[in-house]
């Protein structure tokens, strides 16, 4: 196979994009392609015995469809027969695939959002009470008012007629504050003479013990964690921030896949781009410069791109003086789109080569599939991921930094049991009303009016 193409030289259109395509000089004065795409092309062409030379587009562009119908950049070169293969990297889109033959996708990447934060963690002045969310506190206060009122009403209706008004008022007040004090797990020597009151208070105190011990334990655990600052993770979150400017690297097809994406959030983000007049082409080297990166750190802009390019290009500026002290970069943890990376081959290659038993294009594409099956492309991918540097937020895969307040659903069973206890107390209350003159009045007269104040 190597002898078959030994006199063949392919022209490779290249603008260079680390970590996908870059060149490394050899001791003999030659160079070799490196990177996710570059290493793959270098290995494939070397195994086929094909030589290659790099052809740089004069406009240094990936390839855009011009108003007159022509193509610029690398796509334009292979259309004008100035190159045989465009290295890219390119995102597979229908528009480019109509004028050039795309290779099999050699890697699937996640398009994510690069945003900025002032600091990694935030302080919460309400952290001591945020162990329960607002719904739990509201339900708890409503139950407190309800059970205290029921106990007071039961005491009023079943009160000893020998007690004075002042004694009754003092006793009703003490019943109310006994329920309030129980919220703070405070004990009381107050003596409930009604069985329905004892039943009601018993279930209430049991629920309070469970809730308050859960609150204390969760609060102590939460104090050892640090709550992360708000970040833009999804396209839906970005659509809710019209004050943030979305920036997309227009070349290589990134903007085109967003235009073709379905969903109201994507359409709103596209309109936001139009409002900021940022749909024009932006060169990668210009996008990843301190002025634009500073906008990201100040939460005035976000980048939409695939992860490894963002990590590689931004990490180079971690120690820039212009960005020092402005904040941290954050890579979104959630994928907004999955994109397929390809390179493009000219549709009409050398007729002599194409007429051979195995045309070079088919052979190249077949060997791309071999590399994918072997997992070698994943090795290049992982090997080229750089050290993030100090300008990034930290990633915590163990979820130890995830914090959420306990909500009503976490305690629904306890509140349901309390409602059932109310039903039992109500049945006891009705029984006491019926037997009031026969049983309860006799026991109350035996206790004496002065003992009710204890």
Automatic annotation (TrEMBL):
Highest taxon of the lineage: Eukaryota
Main localization category: membrane
Topology in membrane: Multi-pass membrane protein
Keywords of this entry: Cell membrane, Glycoprotein, Ion channel, Ion transport, Ligand-gated ion channel, Membrane, Receptor, Transmembrane, Transmembrane helix, Transport
A GO biological-process term: detection of stimulus involved in sensory perception
CC annotations in GO: plasma membrane
Pfam family name, one: Lig_chan
Residue ranges of the TM segments: 134-154, 175-193, 199-218, 413-438
Subcellular location: Cell membrane
Molecular function (Gene Ontology), one example: ligand-gated monoatomic ion channel activity
Domain Ionotropic glutamate receptor L-glutamate and glycine-binding: 19-80
SUPFAM superfamilies in UniProt: Periplasmic binding protein-like II
Keyword Transmembrane helix: yes
Gene3D superfamilies assigned to the protein according to its UniProt record, in alphabetical order: 1.10.287.70, Periplasmic binding protein-like II (3.40.190.10)
Family stated for the protein in its record: Belongs to the glutamate-gated ion channel (TC 1.A.10.1) family.
The protein's name in its UniProt record: Glutamate receptor U1, putative
């Amino acid at each position: 196979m190597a002898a078959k193409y030994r006199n063949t030289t392919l022209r490779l259109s290249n603008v260079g994009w680390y970590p996908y395509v870059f060149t490394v000089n050899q001791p003999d004065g030659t160079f070799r392609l490196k990177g996710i795409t570059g290493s793959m092309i270098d290995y494939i062409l070397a195994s086929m015995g094909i030589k290659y030379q790099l052809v740089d587009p004069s406009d240094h562009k990936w390839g855009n469809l011009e108003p007159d119908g022509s193509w610029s950049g690398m796509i334009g070169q292979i259309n004008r027969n100035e190159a045989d293969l465009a290295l890219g990297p390119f995102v597979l889109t229908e528009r480019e695939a109509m004028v050039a033959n795309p290779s099999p996708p050699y890697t699937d990447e996640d398009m994510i959002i690069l945003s900025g934060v002032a600091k990694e963690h935030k302080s919460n002045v309400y952290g001591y009470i945020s162990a329960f969310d607002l719904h739990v506190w509201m339900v708890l206060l409503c139950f407190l008012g309800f059970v205290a009122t029921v106990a007071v009403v039961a005491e009023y209706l079943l009160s000893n007629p020998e007690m004075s008004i002042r004694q009754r008022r003092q006793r009703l007040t003490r019943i109310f504050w006994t329920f309030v004090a129980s919220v703070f797990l405070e004990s009381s020597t107050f003596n409930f003479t009604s069985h329905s009151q004892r039943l009601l208070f018993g279930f209430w105190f049991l629920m309070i013990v469970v809730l308050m011990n859960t609150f204390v334990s969760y609060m102590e655990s939460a104090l050892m964690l640090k709550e992360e600052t708000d970040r833009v993770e999804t396209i839906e979150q970005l659509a809710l921030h019209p004050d943030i400017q979305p920036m997309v690297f227009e070349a290589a097809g990134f903007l085109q896949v967003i235009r073709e994406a379905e969903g109201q959030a994507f359409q709103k983000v596209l309109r936001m781009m139009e409002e900021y007049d940022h749909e024009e082409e932006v060169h990668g080297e210009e996008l990843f410069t301190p002025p634009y990166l500073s906008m990201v750190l100040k939460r005035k802009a976000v980048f939409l791109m695939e992860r490894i390019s963002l990590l590689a290009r931004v990490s180079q500026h971690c120690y820039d003086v212009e960005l020092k002290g402005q904040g941290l970069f954050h890579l979104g943890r959630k994928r907004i789109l999955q994109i397929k990376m390809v390179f493009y081959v000219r549709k009409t290659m050398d007729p002599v080569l194409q007429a051979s038993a195995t045309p070079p294009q088919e052979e190249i594409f077949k060997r791309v599939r071999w590399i994918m099956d072997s997992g070698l492309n994943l090795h290049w991918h992982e090997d080229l991921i750089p050290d993030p540097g100090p300008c990034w937020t930290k990633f915590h895969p163990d979820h130890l930094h995830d914090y959420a307040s306990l909500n009503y659903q976490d305690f629904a069973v306890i509140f349901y049991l309390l409602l059932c206890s109310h039903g039992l107390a109500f049945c006891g209350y009705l029984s006491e009303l019926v037997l009031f003159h026969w049983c309860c009045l006799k026991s109350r007269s035996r206790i004496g009016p002065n003992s009710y104040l204890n």
